[in-house]
């Protein structure tokens, strides 16, 4: 018969109404926030709503993406290293976003909140590590080939899961009290612990920006060579499409989080929360739903399933007497 006051305080009101402020209105933008930023209640609600909706859509899409890659893994075109990297990136983002939504329910300073902060640190670092692997693999495919497929496989796994583990172990052992203590289940801003995430993330973003520029130049040059066939609009369209496809897996839009340093740059927080909470949706859209190789592989798999079920039905059908006589 009463309102819960867990995580909330009464700010103002009278006998007719009450205005409450709750500390569970956390949003996606806290992940890259390097300076304290006071937000109005309206902006807190808006950013929190964007985070919940965006992450929910993203989680659903990433789950479909992982299942799709798993089902089509026997098809030769999907069995290659590129889709293996996509699957690992999707898994890391999926787990990180699920943990992020769960972490909003815990109060800061508690043991569950601290554990959640450590897990979030590891899986978001892993997501960035796999974005770096995406960039390096793209570089090896388009610009410069290095190492054999087998050596690259071990190298990629070492970067994708090994390097985040090392960073987390060092961070936890040196600054355990910086996890989940102030305001939310994340790294503290007070003693600079947030840079244990932001610094590796910025490194990955800068490397991938360089790779994206180099790849875009090559695509533009190829388009220019086909100028007489396709025309100017087709060349520009091809380059724009390539950039749109690459942005979600390279994580460059995460730079918006660092740019939000005061109330005047609040727009960057909204851009950051929108684009990055929906990162899984964009991965599903460009690398699964609209991907010609995945579509072709799915059609091939469907045809195989159809032929297999037809064969099973034919085996189970009893022959007519006339067939036996013949």
Describe this structure in words.
The chain is mainly alpha-helical. The chain has helices at residues 41-71, 81-103, 111-142, 149-174, 195-225, 227-250, 255-259, 266-277, 279-289, 292-316, 321-325; strands at 8-13, 18-22. Strands 1-2 form a two-stranded antiparallel sheet. Helix 3 packs parallel to helix 5 (195-225). The longest helix is centred in the middle third of the chain and has 32 residues, at 111-142. Mean pLDDT is 85; it is low at 322-326. This is AGRD1 protein. Its main location: membrane. The chain crosses the membrane at residues 50-73, 85-103, 115-133, 154-173, 193-219, 240-261, 267-290.
Total number of strands: 2
Q: Would you tell me the structural class of the helices and strands?
A: mainly alpha
Shape: globular
**pLDDT < 50 runs, ≥5 residues:** 322-326
Give the ordered list of helices and strands: EEHHHHHHHHHHH
Radius of gyration: 25 Å
Cross-sheet strand order for the largest sheet: 1-2
Helical segment count: 11
Distance between the termini: 82 Å
Strand content: under 5%
- Largest sheet features: 2 strands, antiparallel
> Overall pLDDT, averaged?
85
Q: State the helical fraction.
A: 55-70%
Subcellular location: Membrane
Domain GAIN-B: 1-38
Protein name: AGRD1 protein
Organism: Polyodon spathula
